[in-house]
Write a structure and sequence with these properties.
alpha+beta; Beta Polymerase, domain 2; 5-stranded mixed β-sheet; 7 helices; 5 strands; 54% helix; flat
């Protein structure tokens, strides 16, 4: 799609700019709501369970308008404000953790909160993608309270270890916007992902052994 076509489609979907800005503000609020929940969990787990900051980093992002347009077109949805509500990854967080068990512990505590609804879950750690990609993906729904109205909005949350995040970030940099598929490169990247997964398991085993010794 040319830049001119993208601009025309952007004009179509942003015809009512005020409504679009309001919607994106709500998604941003939903994203910050989830981030706050995770920040609090990180503090609590560090203090009460001595897990030494299970969360290494939290990265937040809102989809750019052109990315929203492209996704609507791929799904053959009309370019309207209403159609954006059918997308579940407008607001997203990437939560980078130290160890494998941190991912699942945070997932469980987050979903126990009574205002968090699980919409969908994909565990690419137990079942990695063919490329070697590993991550735990959640789509959750959280409330957003404004001065006159309450919204229920979806937020995508991806949990990764430091090792998984290293692989995914470098794979993206190496392959982003590449128009060719090189089987040797794909195999090399998958081998790296598999090696990193073994490191994660080894580090988790060491942690478990040290925890047992400390009891």
């Amino acid at each position: 799609m040319s830049a001119e076509e993208l601009q025309e489609n952007a004009i179509a979907i942003l015809e009512n700019l005020e409504d679009f800005q309001h919607l994106m503000m709500c998604y941003n609020a939903a994203m910050l709501t989830v981030k706050t929940k995770l920040d609090i969990l990180n503090i609590e787990l560090t203090q009460e369970e001595r897990r030494l900051n299970p969360i290494e980093a939290i990265h937040c992002r809102l989809k750019e308008p052109f990315s929203i347009i492209k996704k609507l077109e791929r799904r053959h949805l009309p370019l309207t404000i209403q159609s954006i509500g059918e997308l579940t990854d407008i607001a997203g967080l990437r939560v980078v953790c130290s160890f494998l068990d941190d991912l699942y512990l945070l997932r469980d505590y987050l979903l126990k909160q009574d205002d968090v609804i699980l919409v969908a879950e994909k565990d690419y750690i137990k079942q990695p993608k063919a490329s070697g990609y590993r991550s735990l993906h959640l789509i959750i729904q959280v409330p957003v309270y404004l001065s006159t109205k309450r919204y229920e909005l979806p937020v995508e949350v991806q949990f990764r270890t430091l090792a998984m995040d290293l692989w995914a970030s470098n794979e993206h940099k190496l392959c982003y916007k590449q128009d060719f598929e090189d089987p040797e490169v794909a195999e090399a990247l998958k081998n790296c992902a598999d090696a990193i997964a073994k490191v994660d398991l080894a580090m988790q085993k060491i942690k478990d052994e040290l925890t047992f010794q400390a009891l």
